[in-house]
Amino acid sequence: MASVVGEEVSNKQVIFKDYFTGFPKESDMYLTTSTIKLKVPEGSNGVLLKNLYLSCDPVMRILMQRVVPKGFSNYTPGSPINGYGVAKVLDSGHPDFKAGDLVWGSARWEEYSLITATEGLRKITHSDVPLSYYTGLLGMPGMTAYAGFHEVCSPKKGEYVFVSAASGAVGQLVGQFAKLLGCYVVGSAGSKEKVDLLKNKFGFDDAFNYKEEHDLDAALKRYFPEGIDIYFENVGGETLDAVLLNMRDHGRIAVCGMISQYNLDQPEGVKNLMCLIYKRIHMTGFTVRDYYHLYPKFLDTVLPYIKEGKIAYVEDIAEGPESGPAALVGLFSGRNIGKQVVVIARE
Amino acid sequence: MASVVGEEVSNKQVIFKDYFTGFPKESDMYLTTSTIKLKVPEGSNGVLLKNLYLSCDPVMRILMQRVVPKGFSNYTPGSPINGYGVAKVLDSGHPDFKAGDLVWGSARWEEYSLITATEGLRKITHSDVPLSYYTGLLGMPGMTAYAGFHEVCSPKKGEYVFVSAASGAVGQLVGQFAKLLGCYVVGSAGSKEKVDLLKNKFGFDDAFNYKEEHDLDAALKRYFPEGIDIYFENVGGETLDAVLLNMRDHGRIAVCGMISQYNLDQPEGVKNLMCLIYKRIHMTGFTVRDYYHLYPKFLDTVLPYIKEGKIAYVEDIAEGPESGPAALVGLFSGRNIGKQVVVIARE
Hints:
The structure is a homodimer. The first copy, chain A, is α/β, with parallel strands linked by helices. Chain A has helices spanning 59-62, 140-152, 171-181, 192-201, 216-223, 238-246, 274-278, 295-307, 324-330, and strands spanning 8-16, 29-37, 47-55, 82-92, 102-108, 112-115, 121-123, 160-163, 184-189, 206-209, 228-233, 247-255, 282-285, 315-319, 339-343. Chain A folds into two domains: 8-136 and 314-343, Quinone Oxidoreductase, Chain A, domain 1, CATH 3.90.180.10; 140-289, NAD(P)-binding Rossmann-like Domain (Rossmann fold, 3-Layer(aba) Sandwich). Chain A has nine helices and 15 strands. In chain A, strands 3, 4, 5, 6, 7, 14 and 15 form a seven-stranded mixed sheet that branches. A six-stranded parallel sheet of chain A has the order 10-9-8-11-12-13. Chains A and B meet through helix 7 and strand 13 of A and helix 7 and strand 13 of B. Strand 13 of chain A pairs antiparallel with strand 13 of chain B, so a sheet runs across the interface. Chains A, B: It holds the Pfam family ADH_N_2. Chains A, B: Keywords: Oxidoreductase.
């Protein structure tokens, strides 16, 4: 459906209702329809975007809290939620962007957006891949997996790597980057279907369903009789506690996320931190924001992998803004298989 | 009292009774007197030592458990406990040692020892300092403070440094190394007397008695309104949780010990690990064993500091093997002021 610049059109939006504690529910958001003129106002250096793909990321849960960590901006009740997305420029008052450009970066959950903070946008220079990949494999999660594994974990060929939430947007890539380097990789996920994906689609050496393991320590001892050199942490809580017991000397833990903790009023306590001492473990929290200077190098590495079929990427596609709240909420029950994307429009 | 080589003499020993859980008690050890011939047996390449100073270190508690972490050897019930010490060689079957040499390193808690595992001993080449310093300032704790601060914390001039158990064998030195580098240093300890030492003897910028702070988070916010760049972790548990809330972005935590946890059947859970992500914190466990290659450099650095009066060191001296069990147990109630040493003989 062509969008005519200058036209006033209806604009479906996903609105954040109000701050809450506990698990997010679909009813914490609601849909509304406003109107928007598809033109950048006179004198503005913003851009008018048609949103194509919106990204569901666990970090968005944190922005739904009244109090957020320093450096984060929580959502405004009554306004559209925001996150990462892929969009097409319909009109531009900014010299770096012109109509027809494809961009990825900060996006609002609505069909069309007037964006004045264009520093959050990057032009898409390679469009010979699925554009939705810029919410995942070629966007924030991909960059997170790349920097987290290669820059934070100091991996070496032959090392034993464990990835939790391994079929997720980030985890599936960490495992594949580790395999490409020659590591032994095991992943955990929350269903048989995801475990099958890890083993059969992403080439993990092994994988298990953590929901079927009553004793995570015993499970890890079974999958890593020699112990774990690198743990890519996506979940936190009792998984981290079990991993600490199974790390090898001089192991590394890259702390990327702790999705099991985001909905708890009081996080679970992690008891086995003394292992950090005995085993001389490096545990490093990181955020992708510190690594975007590596994005060109990342693209140079990953684009050939995609074209040569050396990297697979699985997306879970929800259709239309109406499906957005359920898609986002589903991250926290593990409903999604792979990267959760919401399609707003395909072009 | 001269010890005559070849003579058979009585030998007081501090014997480990049996494995236990919970806080150590004096009754977990007992004194006995055996006899020993002050001569290395024919054909042995061991050394016969007269013990001078024995070191009380928190890690010794861990060796009193039935199950110990990999890489540790627990005590044998009915045998003398062991740890670090300073001794004089009375007789030697080893080419590297001769009668009259002073050594420091692995020692058994007794008056005289026949040591065959001489790889745990280092010759003392500088004896123009108090010999007891080789249990502390110039021994394992000193090396721990030096490596932990300079190698693990990547400190920079002007950074904000917090040290817990700050008047202890390691803490008092970490603070002084940090001051020598030009950092702002605050320490916590468990009594007014210790806090006074920190401020008046060791030159910490500030110090507080953690037992008088009902809200450690609030205390840290008071002492570090700008946050903490470096935390030298000696205690674990709720102190660590409060520190995590007060770390600055890109902060570093060197995990040296967690003395608050050693006597608990189940360690306390640490809840605020998500701060590792938000603040991109490096948390690194280390043991001094990985850093002894730096010992010559350490001596070259620290010996001049001692002679120029730039470093102070406070020891808590207990007299005689009879006082050993109480001295060791006292570490866990904070009875000691400074490095706890047991004198067996002064020469």
